[in-house]
Design a protein that fits this description.
The protein is α/β, with parallel strands linked by helices. Helix content is 26%, strand content 24%.
């Protein structure tokens, strides 16, 4: 795969960009799949994987036999041009149609959300800063609750087991909402728009959460580290496996992963003060035994592991008032 092209000098101006998607319709009926790359502009593995798939479709070495698939190689073109996570804000938070757009990501949302609603399944390809192996983020169990009602647990988790990865994490939005409640109790009424967003449970809604809210199923696949040459390969094989599993390509579906690891997010801790610090440099999936020291508050208060589990999404540079790290419990091996 050729290197990603350099952006022109003026490409970091929001009004220089347009939005682009490409769809393929099979002759037979089937599900409607949408695949996203570069929701975060510095996470280009999905862009590379999608471009490889598009080249195969153009060459005729891959065909869409049934259903419909839509590819969005660069979901946030401003962030991609800047080679940064965000354009003007994080597209993967507080995602939804906006009557009065405030920023570039609001305008993306007004284009992207109706397109998501017109599909059945979303595969969103991401990467991480840390040197972590690939893992998939899954939605909730079937429920009729007010936060994230859902009815496609079996379909979503069946697809997850055929992506080609063997580590799965769930519990995102519930845990995020509990963190928001604690944040509100601690800081009281918010003032700035940024504060309002960080104290709104809907700020935890990204592409997959929005997709589930409009009746679809969705998986975020973290393909590996940003610069790791294996990350685009993970994304490419996940797309091919998804096309086969859903019956879109007419190819033999891949086998389901047998032995896998499953984790559930159960708690989030905010960084409350510039003096709050980690006990050591952590990376996602670092393991703890109950009582192990994770971090210290600026006043010396120790934060320890409540049970056997691991840390997720640690951010040593988090601004006070924002998410600092998540704690995940281990589910029984092979239980999804």
């Amino acid at each position: 795969m050729a290197a990603l092209p350099d952006s022109p000098p003026d490409a970091t101006t929001a009004d220089q960009h347009h939005f682009h998607a490409q769809s393929f319709q099979g002759q037979k009926p089937g599900p409607r799949l949408i695949v996203l790359g570069a929701v975060h502009g510095n996470e280009t593995c999905g862009t590379q994987a999608i471009r490889r798939i598009l080249a195969e479709l153009k060459a005729g070495t891959l065909a869409i036999a049934a259903g419909r698939v839509t590819f969005v190689p660069i979901t946030n073109p401003l962030a991609y041009a800047k080679r940064e996570r965000n354009g003007e804000r994080n597209l993967n938070r507080n995602l939804g149609p906006v009557a009065d757009p405030h920023d570039f990501e609001d305008r993306i949302a007004n284009w992207l959300c109706p397109m998501l609603a017109d599909h059945d399944v979303l595969l969103d390809l991401h990467s991480t800063r840390a040197q972590n192996g690939a893992f998939a983020m899954l939605g909730p169990r079937n429920n009729e609750g007010s936060l994230q009602p859902f009815k496609h647990e079996e379909r979503e988790r069946a697809l997850a087991r055929h992506l080609g990865v063997d580590r799965f994490v769930d519990g995102w939005l519930d845990t995020y909402a509990h963190g928001v409640a604690r944040r509100m109790a601690r800081v009281g009424a918010a003032q700035s728009r940024a504060d309002i967003l960080s104290t709104d449970p809907r700020y935890g809604v990204g592409t997959t959460e929005y997709m589930r809210s409009v009746g679809g199923s969705a998986i975020t696949l973290e393909c590996g580290q940003h610069e790791d040459a294996r990350s685009p390969e993970v994304g490419y094989h996940a797309i091919r496996n998804t096309l086969a599993f859903l019956g879109l390509s007419g190819e033999t579906p891949p086998p389901a992963v047998g032995d896998f690891e499953s984790l559930s997010l159960v708690a989030v801790h905010d960084r409350e003060h510039e003096g709050d610090s980690f006990a050591q440099p952590w990376a996602s999936f670092n393991r703890f035994a109950a009582g192990d020291l994770i971090a210290r508050r600026h006043d010396g208060t120790e934060l320890t592991a409540p049970a056997k589990g691991c840390i997720m999404f640690p951010d040593a540079h988090a601004k006070p008032g924002n998410e600092w790290f998540y704690f995940a419990k281990e589910n029984p091996r092979g239980q999804l």
